[in-house]
Amino acid sequence: MKILLLWPKFPNTFWGFKYALPFIGKKTAFPPLGLLTVAALLPSECDKKLVDLNIQKLNGKDLYWADFIFISAMIIQKDSVNEIIKQAKKFQKKIVAGGPLFTTGYEEFLKDIDHFVLGEAEVTLPSFLEDFKKGNLKKIYKPKKFPDIRQTPIPLWELIDMKKYASMNIQSSRGCPFNCEFCDIVLLNGRVQRAKDGEQILKELDALYNRGWRGSVFFVDDNFIGNKIKLKEEILPAISKWMEEKKYPFDFNTQASINLADDRELMELMVKAGFNTVFIGVESPNEESLKECGKFQNINRNLLDSIRIVQNHGLQVQGGFIIGFDKDTPSIFDRMILFIQKSGIVTAMVGLLQAPPKTRLWERLKREKRLISQPTGSNTDCTINFVPKMNSRFLISGYKRVMSHIYSPKNYYQRLITFLKEYKPKKKRNYRLDFNHLFAFLKSIWILGIKEKERLYYWKLFFWALFRKPKLFPLVIDMAIKGFHFRKISEEYLS
């Protein structure tokens, strides 16, 4: 059986880094970890080919070659999925679909997709393969339980060209103990966190290392700190030892909840293991909005103090923020701007609230007859898929003002300096300076320092960092380049 695994194209987004990637000579940010894991779950006798449409175009030769086309996708990739379906139908190929887009919204594709393998592939793909052998395939395969991911195989990395990507990724756990109203993680992966063991994670790190990867590795866990005891007693000590033995070939980043700030030991262990960045869903400076969406881990605390604690322990905080809650008042726009600038969160993803299918938010809005469309999957594209309590035009106008403010060169660079003053790395970062980094530095001088409108702020930051934070100078240039991307993306959406 010949299987063509397809990863659909992303539109230009906040996390796509379209305008930053050319600085380092990369095509896209991350490889399709889910599809690579599915490939590893397929029988060894299957011929497999993976095409990432964010790197290359889909051609007729690949489609003609395949017996089955496997597609995995997120909501934001829907437009690309529809294009793939059109092309596959021309060649009369059978399509098998899975991933978040289809798990929560397969009904929309019933006419066009031949088979759905929903949920986590470890529990549904074996049934599909067994029925294939019997010649009796069903239309839909739904999971009856969550799998034990300690049995999950190492992703089939040989199917991709790692040099095309800015970062690799790895997963040590699935599930999140929290249940935010707008989040679909509970639907997809459950509230009880399921974790791999330390030995398994080290084998996955070995797989990346042995294929020559050096650099950034993103732990894509829904909430990395969902099981603090296992992390502190098993996972992080094992990673720390491995990193020391390998002379620190990777630097790690991940996603976590704000209660990370309450555990000094955990932060110290993460930094020792090589983590330097953590994405935290801050969501809102308005506590009533946090209560509304069930973000209880964020209330009854000074969020700015919590962020500074994490920064002071050597972890850069990237933040997710949302505007459009029912409890938001007209003051939310100025409050959001002030909070973000004070926080020193350089990478601040501010989005309009969207209701993903089948989430608690979706079901509530459905009962209230406020849903108006499917979400686009991008909460930074100035769209909203329900009727908000605030006037829609006023809401979108205020949102655009927030984005225009925080990603203007003056405010972005000011926020970067605020972060650098709070950031206290506990160990010297192991920067790997190669041709790509040198090229990025020189290109930043030309584009950011001479050509583009942030040039004045670039040079002020350049010399400020060179004399006051020389050890962090590579990080400063990296953040300046990312700021250029964020500004360009914001301007695209705001126009």
From TrEMBL:
PANTHER family: ANAEROBIC MAGNESIUM-PROTOPORPHYRIN IX MONOMETHYL ESTER CYCLASE-RELATED (PTHR43409), HYPOTHETICAL METHYLTRANSFERASE (PTHR43409:SF3). Its cofactor is [4Fe-4S] cluster. One of its GO terms (molecular function) is 4 iron, 4 sulfur cluster binding. The keyword Iron applies. It comes from Candidatus Nealsonbacteria bacterium CG_4_8_14_3_um_filter_37_36. Residues 160-393 form the Radical SAM core domain. Pfam families: B12-binding, DUF4070, Radical_SAM. PROSITE patterns: RADICAL_SAM. Keywords: Iron, Iron-sulfur, Metal-binding, S-adenosyl-L-methionine. One of its GO terms (cellular component) is cytosol. This is B12-binding domain-containing radical SAM protein. The keyword ATP-binding does not apply.
